[in-house]
Write a sequence for this structure.
């Protein structure tokens, strides 16, 4: 995990269709190219979207990542409600991590169908995060947890929300911008150092920089990160959602190369190939979703 990069100008920090070809949320070793679909929003002034995804177990015994899209194969649903992408990384080593990540994704995909497009979207996403957290806490009593990242697109406008250390990136004009701040001990200490609450010596003396400071499944949700103003998407933009099995393993250069590939599915394939090529003995589960704007 790394401190978040600076955001591009205009960024302010802070679901489930009736068409049978919807992208499923069940974790898998690897998903096929058939999950990549293009949606024309019906107007020359509105962007065309292309989708890609990958998932791999890495060297872990279990797959605890889950992800899903709304039904991007239904053009009427896309035109009336927009697009949702959600990813959850069940916390390794904690009981029920896989189940919690699956339930979190399913909750968001279901809630998508009752979203009110264009009306206080940040508030809707914020409320949904807290509702999901409360439900997971009640059923699991903090015996497990998951990260959460979600992107919601309506027309050319994008909103996002995140909890934990999974990452959301914007690829624009050959540069990568991390939109969300990862909720982990490293970033927590880094911000305290930046605000001069601790010294560099105190920062370096910390026994560990590992561990989340916020995640779904806690009694009290400490941090939720989101944009409060819409991010206006442009032609050529690409949005990446990924677990730390991707973001924590790849260099910025590798991510730039991967995100420069011909279409969304080729981008995710390249991300997976870069990660697996490293043959890291303790490689975490890796999951990535890419939305390309054309």
């Amino acid at each position: 995990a790394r401190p978040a990069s600076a955001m591009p100008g205009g960024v302010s920090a802070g679901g489930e269709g009736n068409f049978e070809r919807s992208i499923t949320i069940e974790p898998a070793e690897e998903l096929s190219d058939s999950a990549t679909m293009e949606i024309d929003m019906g107007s020359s002034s509105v962007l065309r979207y292309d989708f890609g995804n990958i998932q791999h177990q890495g060297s872990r015994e279990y797959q605890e990542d889950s992800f899903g899209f709304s039904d991007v194969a239904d053009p009427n649903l896309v035109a009336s409600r927009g697009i949702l992408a959600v990813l959850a990384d069940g916390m390794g080593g904690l009981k029920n991590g896989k189940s919690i990540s699956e339930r979190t994704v399913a909750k968001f995909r279901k809630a998508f169908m009752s979203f009110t497009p264009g009306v206080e979207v940040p508030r809707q996403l914020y409320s949904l995060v807290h509702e999901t957290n409360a439900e997971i806490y009640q059923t699991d009593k903090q015996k497990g947890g998951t990260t959460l990242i979600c992107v919601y697109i309506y027309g050319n406008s994008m909103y996002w929300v995140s909890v934990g250390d999974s990452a959301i990136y914007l690829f624009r004009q050959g540069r990568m911008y991390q939109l969300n701040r990862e909720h982990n001990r490293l970033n927590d200490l880094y911000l305290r150092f930046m605000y001069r609450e601790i010294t560099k010596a105190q920062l370096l003396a910390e026994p560990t920089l590992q561990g989340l400071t916020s995640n779904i499944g806690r009694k009290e949700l400490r941090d939720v990160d989101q944009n409060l103003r819409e991010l206006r998407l442009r032609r050529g933009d690409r949005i990446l959602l990924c677990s730390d099995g991707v973001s924590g393993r790849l260099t910025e250069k590798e991510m730039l190369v991967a995100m420069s590939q011909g279409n969304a599915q080729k981008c995710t394939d390249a991300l997976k190939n870069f990660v697996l090529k490293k043959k890291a003995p303790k490689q975490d589960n890796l999951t990535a979703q890419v939305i390309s704007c054309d």
